[in-house]
Amino acid sequence: MIYLNKEDILKSITLDECMATVEEAYKIYADKLFNMPDRIQVENGDLTSLYMPCFTEKSFGTKILTVAPNNAKINKPIIDGVMLVNNIETGEIVCMMDGKTLTSVRTGAVGGVGVRHTTSEDVKTIGLIGTGEQGFYQVLYACKARNIKTVYLYNRTKEKAIKLQEELKKELEDVDIIVVNSSIELLKNSEVIITATTSHQPVIDNKKELLKGKHIIAIGSYKPDMRELPDALFDVVDKIVVDTDFAKEESGDLYQPIKNNLIKSEDIENMGNFLRDNKGFDMNNKTTLYKSVGMGLFDIVVANKIYEKAIKNEIGKNIDL
Amino acid sequence: MIYLNKEDILKSITLDECMATVEEAYKIYADKLFNMPDRIQVENGDLTSLYMPCFTEKSFGTKILTVAPNNAKINKPIIDGVMLVNNIETGEIVCMMDGKTLTSVRTGAVGGVGVRHTTSEDVKTIGLIGTGEQGFYQVLYACKARNIKTVYLYNRTKEKAIKLQEELKKELEDVDIIVVNSSIELLKNSEVIITATTSHQPVIDNKKELLKGKHIIAIGSYKPDMRELPDALFDVVDKIVVDTDFAKEESGDLYQPIKNNLIKSEDIENMGNFLRDNKGFDMNNKTTLYKSVGMGLFDIVVANKIYEKAIKNEIGKNIDL
Description:
Two copies of one chain form a homodimer.
Chain A: E1 2-4, H1 6-12, H2 15-30, E2 34-35, E3 40-44, E4 47-56, E5 60-67, E6 79-86, E7 93-98, H3 99-118, E8 125-129, H4 133-145, E9 150-154, H5 158-171, E10 176-179, H6 183-189, E11 192-195, H7 208-211, E12 215-218, H8 233-236, E13 239-242, H9 247-250, H10 252-259, E14 268-270, H11 271-277, E15 288-291, H12 296-312, E16 317-318
Parallel strand pairs in A: 1-7, 8-9, 8-11, 9-10, 11-12, 12-15, 13-14, 13-15
Antiparallel strand pairs in A: 1-16, 2-4, 3-4, 4-5, 5-6, 6-7
């Protein structure tokens, strides 16, 4: 078995490879060539333990995460976990990797694939609302997916936006990284808007005149009572693409508008089918929404690629079982 | 996080400590101070992936095993897996250890605790039917629980019994280890009989005259269609103790006799209650049955003790997350 920590994971796979791997996962999703039980959740007091097994034809593994909300009080990460990768023939565990970094990287790549396929090709500006760890990877992948010149950052706590600005400046030397004071200012300036918050109220202003023609990449809401997007978006949106069909039930950003008859479930397409069947839907001057909630299939397909590349490039540490 | 392989695990805990820890687990079971969901099982073709989370007041963890029956054809272990131990407050993974060795050790100790509490104090002879990896640990722990002078081994494939004989001779220098040619010969010579097979048919002869006064420790059957014990045993047995209440449904060695009205469910006591309430049930000259199917509670309590002792004695390797 090999073990890959954060640095090992980041060294093993490039942003482009990771996005190509997410596109492979979308192909597997569209072709239904996977076996993914519902996410298993065990609660004990404030702790939640999550088990996300998934099998494809080539790979098999499980992401195991623990969520401990009280850790915020003692300045520890709320989430800890590992990804186990098994040999699909023998079941042997061949690789264990840091589950936090895998989640960040694959979620960034899932966002990046959305940017690549649901925005106009010539977009130059991105606005990011929510400037946590996930925001960092969203911007990194978005800037790889399109030729972005300027990134606008907004967070209710401005210091957090400034902190991310500094981190992004190190990674994206040719991109202007600008902290703005309001979501309105961000909306006015950005062609692509990425939301990566854990909000229960819309973080984008409910003004359709500001939303028309924009490309929205919504990453944050993964529960029915979580919401990042305003109702006005659904007045003007031309195309909605989701990462998984169950996003319609899991995310308040779709569940609530469907329940309130602002959109119809059947008008929402999943990215797997969209990539397979896409006969050239033109995103220019269109208002688009790409909504992701994530799934274990992304984890195992990306983790397996990271594992293969780590072996090839002799990255990671051996553990004798 | 520290990682413990087979050698590390065996170095970290003595046989006596491990049995004392299983007795602690039984106390937790009797007091109902644990949170253990049903074992989670995911199947994909010939592979089965098992997730066994368990929480106690002090510890939390998950054993993850893969079962690949086809591995036997290529001389690889059928089972692979790991145990993750988490901090009960923060959820952080503090230790990962070889799941195969943990399973062997804790199952051996569960058997040993049965020998210690359901056999006459002065027994000198053991017979083991089924001489795989698990048989090795059963004998080791049984010889620690009682002052055993002779161990009889029986296996349908005699070479396997001879192989185990050689291994046991290295560990138990003061004990005679004898391979016998039939289960009848084994029954005649042994006061304690341990069964550790995966059989679907009884492996003990259906003769009550040979079973009267014997102490049976049955470890193998963990599914309703698996059976090691003959019907005749239930004609003569005075006391039945199980490791878990659900053993009555899970093991064919109890499920079938209950269904066929050979025994009553309410006459079967669990070891947790037995140890807590035992006002001195005399095992001398009694026919007893101790039946174990195992549970995640044993894994986490034993794994947590192994982890604590490994930290104290600086055993294992550090893994940077």
